[in-house]
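BED-type domain-containing protein
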Amino acid sequence: MGKLDDGSPVWIFFEKINGDKEVKCRKCGKTYKYCLNTSVMITHLRSDHPDDLRKAENERKGKNGAKNEKNSRYDNDANSNLIMALSTSNVPFRFVKNEYFKKFCLLLNPDHIVMSPDAIRRKLAENSNKYILEISKKVGDLEKCFIACDGWDGRYENVSLYALFVYFVDKDFCKQKLFLGIQKLDGKSTAENIGNLISKLIRLYGIDFCKIMGGITDAASNLKSFLNRNDLYHIHCAAHSISLILEEASAIPKVAQVLAKVNRLAAHLSRSKTDRKKFRDRSAALKTKGRIPLPFSVTRWAGCVMLAVAYLEHYQSISALDAFQQFLLDDNEKKVLNHFIEMTTPFLEAIHNAESDATYCSEIVPQYASLYEFVSGQNQKTRLVKLLTSETLKRYSKYLTNDVALLAVYCDPRFAYLDGVLMTVDWEDIERNAVNYCESSREVRPADATGTEPPAKKSNNQNTFFSRFLESKRQSQPTESVRTEIVNYEAIIMAGRPSPSSCPLLFWKSNGARFPQLSRLARHVLCSPQSSAQVERLFSRCGELVSSSRRNRLSTKTMNDLLLNASLGALKKLSEEVRDKEESESDEDSDDDIGEDVYSMWPRNATNRRSSSAPPSL
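Predicted structure tokens:
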């Protein structure tokens, strides 16, 4: 009866009397027998007080409308956060059917209706379409880009999944990284099928295939074949390239024998929860910091070196526990391990640096120059140093034959015309490549106001010597313009080189008007990072999603929708953070002009507060 009393407008005009047996009208004083319904009272109000009843009903509708609007906003916010929680965790969709989860939601808001699994899938697809539209707008000023693509066979036995990222520098010289999606590959992992998949994904976002300049990948033959067949540049992932050197070093018999004992300790700690707890407690008592020696993933770059470092850091804990005496090293083995770590630490640091998002492919060649200088200065009598020297030189020389890697070094004012970086390559050779590239990718001047260009006049002397002479002179003018920029660029670099911690794109943003051709070249070649670590991290996320027994029926489309929703959430979060930062800065200094792209997924270039990613020796 309480709900009936609260919901009906008649109780504004009537009150119960005589022990709830009768009701009395507050307006005129008439009484009626109460039979647990409001029909008689409504009839009385409609006949005797119609205006008052109409007014009360209108007020009630207005209150209910405001309440419904508030509940609608609450439902939308709650559902959006539920979608993000599912997109960034391993919780299955059927969790929303959990009885206690429903009770929990009802306690927070009795009017809230929890989404069903099917509704969640529909919302995921809807948000994915929003993400595609949002990214399609961002790539509107894309001129040239690099892609990072890689495959994964973790769950699907005969079917491969391929993920695609796009990197480019926009017209404001801000570096952009965009996730385009993850798709199932139709058929075998051939270059042709990979090309079809990439073409399908970039068309979804309105990107022309001709705008792809190249790709940064590992040494997979199918990806390299795809790039070569389409005349695209290929940059070998620096982190993968350096990790191959460390794999060769760890295979040396003496080193491998010691690392085998280190791996046995790691395997024992991963199996025994009791011993692992004892080990952690002992390390805490000894105030030993760092990760205990547990196994790394087989795909983890330089995992053998990191495990060896963790082993030596916690060596006191190993010697202090009786159960771990079998994993101790003798003096010769300890000497081998110490030497191995000492020689490979710069390589490990280079891999960690290459895995960062805030890097540029222009840093690969200087990084190898730094590594080669370090290892060639060591005692070459040991087998480890000889192998590191030869492998480093081999891969260093390979990068020195990569045109786009050299052009990137040239366009980075931190390294351009720096001695000791190019070894046998001359800067003049790179200058010629820069001229050729600028000539081959000259921008076509826009049409006139009518939108059409006037037709060229026909000449009767197209093949005369005079016409060819004039044409050659016309063609040489842009070349001379590029050469003039090159001369001035060298002069300004030699007069004052930017610091190693500076962002190279800031230099070109400030000097874009002075060097229009070279700044455009810099936008093209400086968009790629050092490594394809972002794709590897994405596949780690995929592994977490599908390896769980609770999500073993996750389809490729749903996985793609989950990842796109997570990316959309990252875009919105970054947008809010930048907007809040801009508002706080505008409150402090209203004269500052803050006009930044709020949807960049890269660290803000304008702040220029990142630590240097340049090799220490340079």
